[in-house]
Amino acid sequence: MANHYMEHYINGGLELGFNLHYCGTEQCVPSHSYGPAMRDHYLLHYVVSGTGIFSTTDCEYRLKPGDSFCMFPNRPVSYRADGDDPWTYYWIGFGGENAANLLKLSQITELSPTHAHAEPKRVEALFAELLRVSEDDGLASEASCLGLLLQVFATYLQSQAGTSLPARRHTKGRRDFYISQAIRFIQDNYQKHITVPLIAKQVGLERAYFTKLFHAHVGIAPYEFLLRYRIEKAILLLGQTNLPIQIIANSVGFDNAAYFGKLFTRHIGQSPFAFRKHNQTLL
């Protein structure tokens, strides 16, 4: 019985900090093995059927359908199909400056390189579609493959998300992720009517825990961060445009110009009108 093997190379023309190299699938014969060997990039496998053993220099993992395992750059590993029930798996090789952080957030590390998926059929379908799409060349195909791989990683993140998890279960990598997502949400939506409960909901945390976590990492409460960010944007508009104060207030998330002026004066020490008079760039 011969191995059923298929692999497609991906051009890698997109510059997004996350590079795809190739993907493939193999239906292994009994006791088929690879390694010890290493790669200069990440290589993620997903087991569809059968069983096998994945070995690093420190540990040995017996894997089954629905499990995945990851090779890390320049770290020797080996893996072997079971003699009686050999596995079939998909794989994807990737790298880039953002790859390590995505794996870290997914809690896939050199010390814990395996993962048991809660939705194996969904993940299998994503890998199958990724392999199919990769048959075509071009940036559109590469972008589609990247999107599918990110959906695979979304299954890792979803298995860890949820406010029912105790705070102590959130690793430093996860906490950093929550804060960066909150800050990004504020920066993208400060012009809208966003609130702290909405920000907490967007990152998947209970409000009180989110507020405590944000303050511990940033040094100020999330509402204060939002307010300061809006004031900073207002300062730019006051100094670089002739827009009326009401329009500037609306543009940074305030419906009421008087309330905006009160908060601006409290933070800057002078009214928006006075600040503009003394600081406006010549237009």
From TrEMBL:
Domain spans labelled HTH araC/xylS-type: 180-278
An annotated Gene Ontology molecular function: sequence-specific DNA binding
InterPro entries: AraC-bd, Homeodomain-like_sf, HTH-like, HTH_AraC, HTH_AraC-typ_CS
UniProt keyword annotations, A-Z: DNA-binding, Transcription, Transcription regulation
The keyword ATP-binding appears for this protein: no
Signal peptide: none
Keyword Transcription regulation attached: yes
PANTHER family: ARAC-FAMILY TRANSCRIPTIONAL REGULATOR, MMSAB OPERON REGULATORY PROTEIN
Name of the protein in question: AraC family transcriptional regulator
Organism: Paenibacillus psychroresistens
